[in-house]
Write a structure and sequence with these properties.
single chain, alpha/beta, six-stranded mixed β-sheet, four-stranded parallel β-sheet, 13 helices, disordered C terminus, binds flavin-adenine dinucleotide
Length: 440
């Protein structure tokens, strides 16, 4: 038999099917490359709408898409569900827990970031971050459960504690969560209870800095603060958190008793830098060169939240889906070009399309270069942009119809508490512990 003269296909391993990894793989779909896409989940998640799952506005399946279904038509893309645990950059293999090693010629690291409690492991056990569908479902169970148990408790101190919700972090995620919980309490749940007054629930938003939405221009931060206050959210600015426990927080010397502390204060990108053995950049990120390769490793690329690279203004590129998507497309095209023997392409250039943050019903802020929007116009823009970016026609249609229904009725369709066959206090402690365990 004649040996085959065809060159072996280039083996590309992509770790992570978030915005970066998915768009890189899409660009390589249908090429001669042999692509393995590894993710510890079986779904691609649209994180910008996680807060709506957490606050019962949407269901988990509305904002997630099975990764396999995206690539079913492309035989050169193999999807592996598994957790990468390390890289041997000399042997060029990726270790996947309980599965074995995957050899690569080119590796794309797109593992994103996870919630960071700034080294305070004890705070991680007493509060919930928002980064995955498990987190969102845990928050929903805790928030809806707090109202249910407050309704059946007689001790006023415990009722107050259950009816107080603390959100730590005044960036877009913290603002979205605080606004949405306040609307849930004041509108959706207001008439559903007999003993408690759901509308009187306290929602407290803490931030260590002097203003909310610090990445936006100051007038938009002021607008966000005033809209949240109109919703009844209590703001604590210049209030660095000093302690987080199972029954509340201490911030700037003030003790706030609360059964539900939500953490939206930071993310970190460990452990990708440690896998390769290079010195991490800020928040555990991997510093990358102009073509997004890891210095010293031209066959390894890092994209999205896991990398750090200065943008056109000299500041690090922000941790945004748009950055990850553009980098995924860029690296996919660069690799496809390399396989065809093309000269290296021009360096990665980020196109900033603007920033948006939602505060509540008919209230959002947007910045597109010198154009600044607030109120209904920003809110409609936010909705249109998020519907466009959401993956899959089914999800877009369901989310669009759900939003219209919610706007007309003030209702929220996903108000189920699942996994609550415990007495209230046990439920609270067990879910907090489980959440923290996942993160570590
Ligand atoms: C609540 C929230 C709201 C946000 N809102 C916005 C917004 O409005 N606009 C915006 O532009 N951005 C927003 N972002 C940021 C945006 O979601 C991220 O910047 C973007 O998801 C980064 O993409 P990525 O591909 O780098 O990482 P991710 O999308 O996080 O994907 C990483 C993937 O890697 C997988 N993974 C991680 N570790 C491993 C491992 N060891 N083995 C296997 N798989 C692994 C994960 O399961 C995941 O699928 C928001 C983020 C959050 C959390």
């Amino acid at each position: 038999m004649q040996p085959s003269l065809r060159p072996a296909p280039v083996r590309i391993v992509i770790i992570g099917a978030g915005f970066g990894g998915l768009y890189a793989a899409r660009r390589l779909a249908g090429t001669t490359a042999d692509v393995t896409l590894i993710d510890r989940e079986n779904h691609h998640l649209f994180q910008p709408l996680l807060y709506q799952v957490a606050t019962a506005a949407l269901s988990s399946s509305d904002i997630a898409t099975p990764i396999r279904s995206v690539f079913a038509r492309f035989p050169n893309i193999r999807v592996v569900m598994g957790e990468a645990t390390g890289i041997d950059a000399v042997a060029r293999t990726v270790a996947v827990r309980d599965t074995g090693d995957f050899p690569y010629d080119i590796l794309v690291l797109a593992t994103g970031a996870s919630t960071s409690w700034f080294g305070h492991d004890e705070w991680a056990k007493a509060s919930i971050g928002l980064k995955s569908l498990e987190d969102a479902e845990t928050i929903r169970r805790r928030v809806l459960g707090a109202f249910e148990w407050a309704e059946s408790r007689r001790d006023p101190v415990e009722v107050d504690r259950l009816m107080t919700f603390v959100v730590v972090g005044g960036g877009p995620t913290g603002v979205e969560l605080a606004g949405s919980i306040a609307e849930l309490a004041r509108s959706t749940l207001a008439r559903d209870f007999r003993h408690i007054k759901a509308a009187e629930a306290r929602v407290i938003l803490c931030d260590a800095g002097p203003r909310l939405l610090a990445s936006f221009p100051e007038p938009l931060s002021r607008y966000a603060a005033s809209r949240l206050q109109r919703l009844g959210v209590e703001l604590r600015l210049n209030a660095a958190v000093e302690q987080v426990t199972d029954d509340g927080i201490t911030a700037a010397g003030e003790r706030i008793d609360s059964a539900t502390v939500l953490w939206a204060a930071g993310v970190a990108a460990q452990p990708a830098a440690a896998w390769i053995g290079i010195k991490p950049g800020p928040h555990g990120t991997l510093p990358v060169a102009a073509d997004l390769s890891v210095p010293g490793y031209p066959e390894i690329f890092a994209i999205g939240d896991v990398m750090t690279r200065p943008g056109p203004d000299g500041k690090p590129l922000p941790g945004l889906a748009t950055v990850a998507k553009q980098q995924g497309r860029y690296v996919g095209a660069l690799i496809a070009g390399r396989i065809r023997g093309r000269q290296p392409s021009s360096p990665f250039r980020y196109r900033d399309w603007g920033s948006l943050a939602i505060i509540g019903r008919s209230a959002a802020v947007a910045e597109f270069g010198r154009i600044r929007l607030k109120g209904t116009s920003a809110w409609l823009t936010w909705g249109a942009v998020h519907l466009t970016l959401l993956m899959g026609m089914r999800n877009r249609a369901v989310v669009y119809v759900t939003w219209i229904w919610s706007w007309l009725t003030w209702g929220r369709g996903a108000r189920l508490i699942i996994g609550s066959r415990y007495p209230a206090t046990t439920l609270f402690r067990e879910t907090v512990g489980a959440n923290a365990a996942q993160e570590h």
